[in-house]
Amino acid sequence: MRVLGLMALSSVLLGCATQGVSHTELPSYYMAADPQTRLSQYVAKEQPADESLSGFTLLYKGNDALAARLKLIDMADQSLDIQYYIFNTDITGGLIAEHLLKAADRGVRVRILLDDIGSSLEDMKVAVVDQHPNVEVRLYNPLSLRNEWLKSLSTLGEFGRINYRMHNKLMVADNRALITGGRNIGDEYFTLSDVDFQDVDVLGIGSIADAASDSFDNFWNSGIAIPIATLAKQSDAEALASMRATLGSRNLQLQHDPYLKAAARSPFITDMSNGTLNWRWGHAEWFYDDPSKSDPHGDGNETAFLGRRLLEKLRASRSELLLTSAYFVPLETGEDMLLDIHSQGVSISVLTNSLATTDVLAVHSGYAKSRVSLLKGGLNIWELRPIAGQQERASPFLGESLASLHAKTFVFDRKAVFIGSVNLDARSVKLNTEAGVYIEQQAIAEEMVDLFNRWTSDDFAYQVSLNENHDLQWQADGKTWSKEPEAGAFRRFMSWTLGWLPIEGQL
């Protein structure tokens, strides 16, 4: 009765607000690359004769991934376009915010597009950053009611609309360089918390930046990317000055932090500054979902949806697929697709989270229903261990941390890769907007194969298989488990319970 009362009240309060909010701001577009900017000059020195090629380097270490973002921001002379599902106000979020404000001080135009639900930022804090004359912030598909208490009611009343979220992760500098992948902005994505999200980003330069910038504009100018200035009370210059002072003071105190010193000394920074970074040049395509995917009343035209293009690449594979997906919920349709591809002679290996490492129990419950069928069909499955890669992490600066998989990568026939925000689940395919880059480059593919092999070694993962009775078993370090390893009885019970709920399409 209490829930029904809340839903009724929300309907009264929201009224026609369930259609969301809109704005009349004039569109803005990415700036054509200026050959005089530092990034343009850098790319010109590195670019091979074939200007259709793009250069790439992988970022799978947290400190390198943070260092790369700060380096791009500091090198920008013209524009920065930032698009994220989550942007936390923690150490890494504060560092990036301070560097963005300094870039704006240099005259760089900064556009920041954040998902309203994913970021969960206080409007006032976002509005303060928006006060800078060279910074504009927009929220994607925001709740109509902005009061912190009323947001929960707004969520109930607008669920049909706000269930469609922007899961993209993208940074583009001067339309010459970009970073995309699985990482949001938050300490846990950069090995700086008690839970370490293992992830992969890629830094790209050259022609691929044009396509990424075009996709950013498509979202930025969509009717559901709403300027924060129209949603929140106006801030003032004094509030901005206060925020900058707070960020500056906090970041100054952190200069001697061992982790941040390691990030500052990242080989990536040294190599890029010295012009010795090993770029891999190849043909690339930018894949992304059109913002129309977020319209629950749209025409259902999936031609612009990323999932269809990825499916084409999956079905075109001839020998091997290596799939890393933090949230892996194939459902019956996905099972049939993977088993059909495997039946054509393609070896398929999957790495996902174990029950002990997942941060969303309901997702594991959905995935668990597919394990036996996929294993019987001949797929190889690994699940991440909580102790994964302890020796390699920067987190020992803070003490031990538990691992969780957050990467979303695909390796096709050891010749091409996709790196982006897409999980192999219904939410990524049908509900959220996603983005990433497809790269045809053998050296990058081989590096991703090496990373997959390391992440599926006994130090990182359990191999899941069936015993002689076709019951599940988990193996690592010469040990065998007959129950979900390193997951307590209560966690196993909750996962089993959630498995009975008809929510697979939301996972």
UniProtKB/TrEMBL annotation:
Name of the molecule in the record: Phospholipase D family protein
Signal sequence, start to end: none
Coiled-coil portions: none
Organism listed in the record: Pseudomonas neustonica
Domain of life of the source: Bacteria
InterPro entries tied to this protein: PLD-like_dom, PLipase_D/transphosphatidylase
Domain PLD phosphodiesterase: from-to ranges: 162-189, 401-428
